[in-house]
Amino acid sequence: MSHTITEWDPEDTVAWEAGNKKIARRNLIWSVAAEHIGFSVWSIWSVMVLFMPESVYGFSAGDKFLLGATATLVGACLRIPYTLATATFGGRNWTVFSAFVLLIPTVFTMWLLANPGLPLWPYLLCAALAGFGGGNFASSMTNINAFYPQRLKGWALGINAGGGNIGVPMVQLVGLLVIATAGNRQPYWVCAVYLMALAAAGIGAALYMNNLEQHKIDVTSMVAILRVRDTWVISLLYIGTFGSFIGFAFAFGQVLQINFIAGGQTAAEAALHAAQIAFIGPLLGSVSRVYGGKLSDRIGGGRVTLAVFAGMILAAGVLVGISTLDDTTSGPATATMMTGYVVGFIALFLLSGIGNGSVYKMIPSIFEARSRSLELSEAERQHWSRAMSGALIGFAGAIGALGGVGINLALRQSYLSSASATSAFWIFAVFYVVASAVTWIMYVRRPATLRSNAEETPAQHNLLTHGA
User: Fold this and answer.
1) Separation CA 251–CA 272 (nearest Å)
2) DSSP H or E run through 5
3) Were both Cys, which of 201, 283, 286, 357 would link to 99 (CB 3.0–4.6 Å)?
4) Which of the four pLDDT bands, split at 50, 70 and 90, describes residue 1?
5) Which positions are tagged coiled coil (predicted)?
6) pLDDT for 154-194, tens place per residue?
7) Which of the two residues, 63 and 360, has the higher pLDDT score?
8) d(Cα 106, Cα 345) in Å, to the nearest integer?
């Protein structure tokens, strides 16, 4: 059968109920599957570093943070071209390709872990190739955005993104099972699991997904969003939410392992204990993303995002306090201190997940509001809104992921300079304060304090403030 749909209007409620919603759901399911595996491969080095004791591989904590930063950087940079790819090659076609191409870094990872003693650069190259999995998010989100009507975008994008994000804790959970059953010298089983998963995702996408013929995102749309003030604001907010999620996902296990080793555990014991905890944070962050989108559908993305950053300021404050106490206390971290680290990180994961959903819900609402002032037909207006939303989804996803690079580099430098993460935690807290202020000014203030802006009417501001 043909996998290309020539006519697709998600706002046509009659056609939607007559069968289009089933088509959209089928594409959503396989999009989530492929994106889920992509996230797992992207973050696979957050697990591999637990299998790499310094005595065997010769890599310091700073080297391992650099692996995470490299994978995150490549994944971030690829999100813009991946956004354009679904409109150029088709959502189904690109999903198939993006799944199968990840077989390369997965096999490469197996080979590297089997040959300790190599210099750092092959590992950095492999981490960069694994970063291709980070691009899957942008292509998947842009594709699903075109399938669903405005009234369901918060739910659909939340499910798609949340299901993909769960790939991070899933690969960590697989790593935990391998460490617990085969020991920390058998990382190959983690890669073997994902070789099979990638094959299944690629074949499933080829059989059950569709291309939308009229779904186009050209360079004009990508350039146009650069002139929109909200593009840069949303990207900043996404650095704070998704950047925190993916950055901490790469770093959490290693921070725990460092503290466990400092407490006197062997490398094997520290790896197992870190793996037992590390997957919980990304799991909660992934699940909460779905609820962040649904909550934003009800009360507004701006309000939810502001509450998220307020909570993240408190959580980062907890980490600053615990880490400062740890620095000034002789001996290894106590059980109370370790509990404080875990609670602070878990709270950041949970809140960043909610913020991921709320910030992405704001994107289609922003351009829906702006489109109301355009002198276009209804069909043209909807097309413009979808095209601009899709472009910003990819752009904000790319810029937001750079926050994960910053988190890993900040932690790396903090440990190198002071053997502590306190300085990095201070940086995170200050950023969240800035992000909360920007959110309040741009999307939560009442119309009475409306900024003078020729391209935004009071009616549009009301929609962005209360209906985003």
Assistant:
1) 16
2) strand 4-5
3) 201
4) low
5) none
6) 788 778 877 888 898 999 899 888 888 876 677 888 999 99
7) 63
8) 28
Q: How confident is the model at residue 373 (pLDDT cuts 50, 70, 90)?
A: confident
Which residue in this structure is represented by tokens 């355009």?
A: 374
What angle (nearest 5°) sits at the alpha carbon of residue 7, between those of residues 6 and 10?
135
Residues 349/248, Cβ–Cβ less than 8 Å: yes
Task: Tell me what the pLDDT averaged over the chain comes to.
Answer: 85
Q: Would you state the pLDDT for residue 463?
A: 38
Q: Under a CB-based contact definition with an 8 Å cutoff, are residues 201 and 102 in contact? A: no
Instruction: Mark 5-30 as b/e (b = at least 16 C-beta within 10 Å).
Output: beebebeeeeebeeebbebbeebbeb
Q: Which residue bears the tokens 């075109």? A: 146
In a domain, 1, yes or no: no
CA distance 274 to 258: 9
Within a domain: 222: yes
Count: domains in the chain: 1
User: Distance between CA 426 and CA 327 in Å, rounded?
Assistant: 14
Q: Is residue 310 packed enough to be buried (19+ CB in 10 Å), middle (13-18) or exposed (0-12)?
A: middle
Which residue intervals of 263-377 are DSSP H helices? 267-278, 280-299, 301-328, 335-371
Query: How many Å apart are CA 307 and CA 290, to the nearest integer?
Result: 16
Work out the number of other CB atoms within 10 angstroms of the CB of residue 379: 10
Helix (H) or strand (E) holding 394: helix 378-418
Two structure tokens written together for 455? 């391209």
In a domain, 414, yes or no: yes
Contacts of 331 (CB under 8 A, 6+ apart): none
Q: Can you tell me the distance from the alpha carbon of 112 to that of 119, in angstroms, rounded to the nearest whole number? A: 10
Print the domain residue range for 381: 7-467
Mean pLDDT, rounded, for 71-87: 87
DSSP states of 128-191: HHHTHHHHHHHHHHHHHHHHS-GGGHHHHHHHHHHHHHTHHHHHHHHHHHHHHHH-TT-THHHH
Inform me whether the pLDDT recorded for 461 exceeds 60.
no
Q: How does pLDDT run across 242-277, given as a tens digit for each residue?
A: 999 999 988 898 888 888 877 777 777 887 888 888
Q: Quick one: average pLDDT of 293-317?
A: 90
* CATH number of the domain bearing residue 44: 1.20.1250.20
Give the mean pLDDT of 66-83.
90
Higher-pLDDT residue of 317 and 299 is 317
- Domain for residue 158, yes or no? yes
